[in-house]
Design goal:
The complex is a heterodimer of chains A (199) and B (583). Chain A contains 7 helices and no strands. Chain A is an all-alpha fold and 199 residues long. Chain B contains 25 helices and 5 strands. With 583 residues, chain B is mainly α. In chain B, 31% of the residues are buried. Classes of the chains: A mainly alpha (199), B mainly alpha (583).
C-alpha cells in the first residue's frame, strides 16, 4: 500500500517540484516568448507575401491603366474629339473610361490593403523587438511580467491571421469614381477647360 | 499465554527502543558536551547524524546558540529539552520509534515485508477496515503466518538476537510467535496512521505545488524566491553545518566568523555579477536605440520627413520611435535593481570589513561583541539575497518619454551624423556590398531589393546570411540568382511560398534553413522543383500536430529524387516510417 502510494506520488511530486522551480518558470516564460517569435515570423512571412502579391497586382493594373489612357489619348488625337459628351459617344473611349474607373477602384483598394499589411508587418516587427528585449530582461533578472505582452500579441495575431487567409481585397467593397473625374485626370488641362468651363 | 508473549515482545521492543533514544541522547549530549568540552565528539557520531529534526534544530540554532553558549554558557537548556524528549519517548514504544529516527529504522524495516503482505490483504478486500486488520490476526491464512514467522525469525536474529542470543536459541519458537502476535498488533496500529500521514503530506504537497505552478506571476516569483532561498540556505546550512563542527574545535575559535564573512563575500560577488549583467543589458538597449536612431535618420532622409507629424505617417518610423521610447523606459527601470545592488554591495562590504577588523582586534581587546556582527551579517544576507522579487522591474508603471523628445534627440543627432555621412549598420553594409566590398555581408540583418541585386554578383562559393530574419519575395528573386554552391539562411524563422518559389529555383547545391520550425506541404511542393543536393532543416519541431506543419511526404519524395536531407531524429523517424509504409 505504502509502496504504491510512494511509487505513484513521489514521481508526481518530483515533476511538480521541477515545474515549480524558478529556472523552470523562467524557461517557461522564455519558451512562451520564443513560441510567439515563431508565430509572428510565420505571420510576417505571410504578410510579406500578401504585400508582394498586392504590389505585383498593382503594378499590373497600373500598366493596364496606362495602356487604356494612352489609347484614349490616341483616340482623341485621331478623331479630334475634345468636348466631354462627344468622347463618350466613341465606344472605345467610353469603355476605356469604364475600365479605368474599375482599375482605379481596384488600385485604390490595393493601396489601402498594402498599407494595412505594411502597418501590420511593422507592428509585428515592433513586437518582435519587444519580445527580444523582454527575453533579455528575463534572462538577467529571472522574471518579468509577460502576460500582458502575450495578450497583446495574441490580439494582433488574431486580427491579422484571418486577413492573410483571405484574398487581398473584396471587389464588392470598391467604389467607382465618377466618369468626369476620370476624364479630368486623363485629358490634358486645356481640353478639360474647354469641356467643363466653356470656351 | 498471550500476556506472556506480549510482555516478552514488549521487552524486546523496549530494549530496541531504549537503545535508540540512548544513541540519540548520546549524539545530542555529545553535541552539547563537545561545545562545552572541547570537541571530544567522535567524528563517527556526528557524521552518522541523519538530516532529521534534531539536526535541523542544531543547524538553525547552531550559530547563535553556540555563540551564546560561548559567552554565557546556558545553551544547555535546549539540549536538555531534547534529552528530555528522547527520554520521554523511551517509555513508549510507538512514540520512541517515531522520535528516534535512524536507529528505529530497524523495527520499521522489519515491518516492511509484513507491511507488504498486509497491504496485499487490504488491497484484496478494500472493505476490510483498519481495526479488522489490526484485530484479525486469526483470520490470516497459514501461509501468511508462516511467511511472517520466517520474517520475524529474521527480525529476532537481527535485532533482539544480538542482545540475547541464548534466550533466542532456547525459546525461539515461543518468542517468534509472541513477536509475530504482538509486533503485528503494534505494526498495524502504526502502519495505518503512517500511511495516512504520508498520504496527507503528499496531498498537501501536491496541492501546494499545484498552487505555486498555476498561479501566475506572484507565485512564479515566490516559487523563484523560495528555491533560490532554499538553495542558498542549503548551501549556507550545509556549509554552516559542516563549519560548526570545526568551529567547536578549540584551535580555531574564529572559524564560524570567518565562514560568515566568506558567505558575505560570496553574496557580494554574486550581486556584483548581477550588476554587471544589468549594465550589459542596459548597454544592449543603448546600442539598440542608437541603431534605431540611425535607421530612422535614413528613412527620414529617403522619405523627406522633416517634422514629427510627417514621420508618424510612416509606420516604420513610428514603431521605431515607440521602440526607442520603450527601451528608454527599460533602461530607467533597470536603474532600480542596479541601485539596489549597489547599495547592497556597499552595505555588505562595510559589514565584512567591520567584522574583520573586530575579529582582529578581539585578540587584544575585550568588549568586542562578535555576536552582534553575526546578527548583522545574518540580517544582511537575508536582506540582500538577489531574488527575482527584489530585482523585478515593473513596466506597468513605467513612465514613457514623449515621442517629441525622442524626435528632437534624433534631430540633434541628425546634424552630427549627416556631417559624418553615417547611417544604419544595414545601410552601411549595403553601400559596401554595392561597391563590391563583401567582407561584412554576413552581418546584414535586413536586405533590400537593391542590396539583393548587388549580392547576386558576389564571387565565391558560400553565402552566409544568418542574421537575416526575413526576406521579401522581390529581394529573394534577385538574391537567389547568386552563383554559388552553399547558401546559409539559418536566421529565417519562416518561409513564405513566394520566397520558397524563388529559393527553390536557385542553381546551387546546398541550402541551410536550420531556423525553420515548420515546413508545410505548400513549401514542400515547391521543394520538389529544386535539383539541389543537400538541404538542412535541423530546426524542424515535430509534434503530434505536425502533420500540417511539416510536409513529410514531400520531404520523402525530394529525398527519393536524389537529394540529401538533414532533419531532426523525430522527423527522420517519421520519414522512415512513411518510406516503409509506401514500400
Amino acid at each position: 500500500m505504502i509502496k504504491q502510494i510512494f511509487g505513484s506520488c513521489i514521481p508526481a511530486l518530483l515533476i511538480l517540484s521541477i515545474l515549480s522551480n524558478p529556472a523552470a518558470a523562467t524557461t517557461r516564460k522564455t519558451d512562451a516568448l520564443e513560441q510567439k517569435i515563431i508565430e509572428i515570423s510565420a505571420l510576417r512571412a505571410k504578410i510579406i507575401d500578401k504585400i508582394d502579391q498586392g504590389i505585383e497586382m498593382r503594378a499590373f493594373l497600373q500598366d493596364q491603366l496606362k495602356g487604356l489612357r494612352d489609347e484614349i489619348k490616341a483616340e482623341l488625337n485621331r478623331n479630334g474629339i475634345s468636348a466631354h459628351p462627344a468622347p463618350l459617344e466613341n465606344l472605345r473611349i467610353n469603355y476605356n473610361l469604364k475600365l479605368i474607373r474599375h482599375l482605379r477602384a481596384y488600385i485604390d483598394q490595393l493601396d489601402k490593403r498594402i498599407a494595412y499589411f505594411q502597418t501590420g508587418h511593422e507592428r509585428l516587427n515592433f513586437y518582435l523587438r519587444r519580445i527580444k528585449d523582454e527575453i533579455a530582461i528575463i534572462n538577467t533578472l529571472q522574471d518579468l511580467e509577460i502576460e500582458n505582452l502575450i495578450g497583446r500579441i495574441d490580439t494582433v495575431l488574431d486580427k491579422f491571421i484571418p486577413e492573410t487567409d483571405k484574398q487581398i481585397f473584396d471587389a464588392f467593397d470598391i467604389r467607382l469614381m465618377p466618369t468626369e473625374q476620370v476624364w479630368k485626370e486623363i485629358v490634358p488641362k486645356p481640353i478639360e477647360t474647354i469641356i467643363f468651363t466653356g470656351p | 499465554m498471550d500476556e506472556k508473549k506480549e510482555n516478552e515482545t514488549q521487552a524486546v521492543l523496549e530494549s530496541s527502543a531504549d537503545a535508540a533514544p540512548d544513541s540519540d541522547d548520546q549524539e545530542t549530549d555529545q553535541g552539547s558536551e563537545s561545545i562545552d568540552d572541547t570537541g571530544k565528539a567522535p567524528e563517527k557520531e556526528i557524521s552518522n547524524r541523519t538530516p532529521g529534526s534534531s539536526n535541523a534544530a542544531i543547524e538553525e540554532g547552531s550559530e547563535s546558540e553556540i555563540t551564546e553558549e560561548t559567552e554565557t554558557g546556558p545553551g544547555f537548556s535546549e539540549f536538555g529539552a531534547t534529552d528530555q524528549q528522547a527520554d520521554d519517548g523511551a517509555g513508549d514504544a510507538e512514540v520512541s520509534e517515531g522520535q528516534t529516527g535512524g536507529k528505529n529504522i530497524v523495527p520499521w524495516s522489519d515491518e516492511a515485508p509484513d507491511g507488504g503482505d498486509s497491504a496485499t490483504a487490504t488491497d484484496a478486500d478494500p472493505s476490510i477496515g483498519d481495526h479488522e486488520i489490526a484485530d484479525g490476526e486469526a483470520k490470516e491464512t497459514d501461509s501468511f503466518a508462516a511467511s511472517s514467522e520466517e520474517k520475524q525469525q529474521d527480525t529476532v536474529a537481527e535485532s533482539a538476537g544480538k542482545d540475547q542470543p541464548e534466550q533466542q536459541s532456547d525459546d525461539a519458537e515461543a518468542q517468534t510467535e509472541a513477536l509475530s502476535d504482538s509486533k503485528a498488533k503494534v505494526k498495524f496500529k502504526k502502519k495505518v496512521p503512517l500511511a495516512k500521514i504520508a498520504l496527507t503530506v503528499i496531498i498537501l504537497a501536491a496541492v501546494f505545488s499545484g498552487f505555486f505552478i498555476f498561479d501566475n506571476k506572484s507565485n512564479i516569483k515566490s516559487a523563484q524566491k523560495r528555491p533560490s532561498k532554499k538553495a542558498e540556505n542549503a548551501v549556507v546550512s550545509k556549509a554552516g553545518y559542516e563549519k560548526t563542527k570545526p568551529a567547536i574545535q578549540p584551535d580555531d575559535p574564529n572559524y564560524i566568523f570567518n565562514a560568515k564573512i566568506k558567505e558575505i563575500s560570496v553574496l557580494r560577488e554574486t550581486l556584483l555579477r548581477k550588476k554587471e549583467e544589468i549594465r550589459q543589458l542596459q548597454n544592449y538597449y543603448r546600442e539598440g536605440i542608437e541603431e534605431l536612431e540611425k535607421e530612422i535618420f535614413d528613412e527620414m532622409r529617403s522619405a523627406n520627413a522633416g517634422t514629427l507629424l510627417q514621420a508618424l505617417e510612416n509606420k516604420s518610423i513610428e514603431f521605431k520611435l515607440r521602440t526607442i521610447q520603450r527601451r528608454h523606459a527599460y533602461m530607467r527601470q533597470l536603474d532600480r535593481p542596479s541601485d539596489w545592488i549597489n547599495r547592497a554591495c556597499e552595505d555588505l562590504l562595510y559589514l565584512k570589513r567591520r567584522a574583520m577588523v573586530d575579529l582582529q582586534v578581539a585578540e587584544v581587546a575585550s568588549g568586542i561583541d562578535m555576536n552582534m556582527h553575526m546578527r548583522h551579517m545574518n540580517t544582511a544576507i537575508e536582506k540582500y539575497r538577489p531574488t527575482a522579487d527584489r530585482l523585478a522591474v515593473d513596466m506597468t508603471n513605467a513612465r514613457l518619454e514623449p515621442l517629441e523628445n525622442i524626435w528632437e534627440q534624433i534631430q540633434t543627432r541628425k546634424f552630427q551624423t549627416s556631417n559624418n555621412h553615417a547611417s544604419s549598420r544595414n545601410g552601411v553594409i549595403s553601400e559596401q556590398v554595392c561597391r563590391g566590398v563583401f567582407s561584412e555581408v554576413t552581418e546584414l540583418s535586413e536586405i533590400s531589393v537593391e542590396t539583393a541585386k548587388c549580392i547576386a554578383g558576389m564571387p565565391g562559393s558560400d553565402l552566409f546570411l544568418n542574421e537575416l530574419s526575413e526576406i521579401s519575395p522581390r529581394a529573394a528573386k534577385y538574391l537567389f540568382q547568386w552563383k554559388g554552391s552553399w547558401l546559409c539562411l539559418n536566421g529565417l524563422k519562416a518561409l513564405s511560398p513566394r520566397v520558397a518559389n524563388h529559393l527553390f529555383q536557385w542553381d546551387g547545391g546546398w541550402i541551410s534553413l536550420n531556423g525553420l520550425t515548420e515546413f508545410p506541404a505548400e513549401i514542400g511542393q515547391l521543394l520538389l522543383q529544386w535539383p539541389g543536393k543537400q538541404l538542412e532543416l535541423m530546426g524542424l519541431r515535430y509534434t503530434d500536430h505536425s502533420f500540417d506543419n511539416i510536409g513529410i511526404e514531400y520531404l520523402v519524395r525530394w529525398e527519393r529524387s536524389g537529394g540529401k536531407l538533414f532533419v531532426p531524429r523525430e522527423v527522420r523517424e517519421k520519414m522512415d516510417e512513411l518510406k516503409r509504409n509506401s514500400a
